[in-house]
Every structure is written in structure tokens, then in C-alpha cells.
Design goal:
The protein is an all-alpha fold. The chain has one domain (7-139). It has 5 helices and no strands. It has helices spanning 7-34, 37-60, 69-100, 104-135, 142-147. Helix 1 packs antiparallel against helix 2 (37-60), helix 1 runs antiparallel to helix 4 and helix 2 runs parallel beside helix 4 (104-135). The longest helix is centred in the middle third of the chain and has 32 residues, at 69-100. The radius of gyration is 19 Å and the shape is flat. Residues 143-148 have low confidence and may be disordered.
């Protein structure tokens, strides 16, 4: 049943979890050394909040799974400006935490780990949609291709 999913698509779903957990563990070790657990929690929360909020906004606007070319083009034009704003806010927050906090490593590792895990729900939802629409075994039979 799951053999029809291309291997690289599994990596797109599994590697962010591995990288996010690895970064959070590294941040936890740095927080332990510097006794900066509050900083760790704040940085991880900020890192995860921005991508999660954006994913929820896309869900609310019914833009998470676009199919028409016009809707995709319109969404891409909006994403360009929003992405810059998001990177600026996230970068400024991480920089402020790293500068003003007792442990810059803790802030950076926790924020990047949180951000990596924050984008994961959107990646997982897209993976599930593609599995249902493209890779499911019933989609690969010749009769299913004709009926689409």
C-alpha cells in the first residue's frame, strides 16, 4: 500500500522531524549548561509559532491545497511578501534572544528546532493529500487513471 510513495517524498516528511528534534535536543543541552530553560522555551515557542500561525491562516483561507493555476499564481505572489516579513520577524526575535540572553546557542538551536517542527504540520497535510490523490494504490490502476 505505501510502496507507491516515492522515497524522496518520505524524506520531505521525516527529515524535518529528525532535524527539529536534533536541534531541540542540542538547545536543551545548551540550556542545561547555561541554566537557561526559560529562554529555551521562549525561543522554541517563537520558532514554532510563526510557521504554525501561517499554516493555520492558509487553512482558514482555504489556500493550503490549491489546484487551479490562477489560484497558485495569486498565492505565490502573496507568499513572497509575507515570507520576507516572517523571516524578518523570526530573525529579529532570534537575534534579540541571542544578544540579550545568557546563552545565544540555546536561543538559536531552540528557535530553529521550533521553526523546523512548526512547518511540519503543513508538510504532513500536503503529504497526506498527495498520497490520497496521487500515490494511493487505487490511483495507479489503469481504470482509475481513465476515470479521473
Amino acid at each position: 500500500m505505501l510502496r507507491s510513495v516515492p522515497a524522496r517524498k518520505w524524506l520531505a516528511v521525516l527529515l524535518p522531524v529528525v532535524f527539529g528534534v536534533t536541534l531541540l535536543v542540542a538547545g536543551a543541552f545548551a540550556a542545561s549548561d547555561a541554566d537557561a530553560w526559560f529562554l529555551y522555551a521562549v525561543a522554541a515557542g517563537i520558532g514554532a509559532a510563526l510557521p504554525l500561525a501561517y499554516t493555520l491562516q492558509l487553512v482558514g483561507e482555504h489556500r493550503l491545497f490549491l489546484r487551479s493555476d490562477a489560484a497558485i499564481t495569486r498565492s505565490r505572489s502573496r507568499i513572497g511578501s509575507l515570507a520576507r516579513v516572517g523571516w524578518l520577524i523570526g530573525g529579529a526575535a532570534v537575534a534579540a534572544l541571542a544578544i540579550f540572553a545568557s546563552s545565544g546557542k540555546t536561543a538559536v538551536y531552540a528557535a530553529l528546532g521550533g521553526a523546523t517542527l512548526g512547518i511540519w504540520p503543513g508538510l504532513l497535510a500536503n503529504f497526506i493529500r498527495l498520497w490520497r490523490e496521487e500515490w494511493a494504490p487505487e490511483r495507479s490502476t489503469p481504470t482509475a487513471r481513465v476515470q479521473r
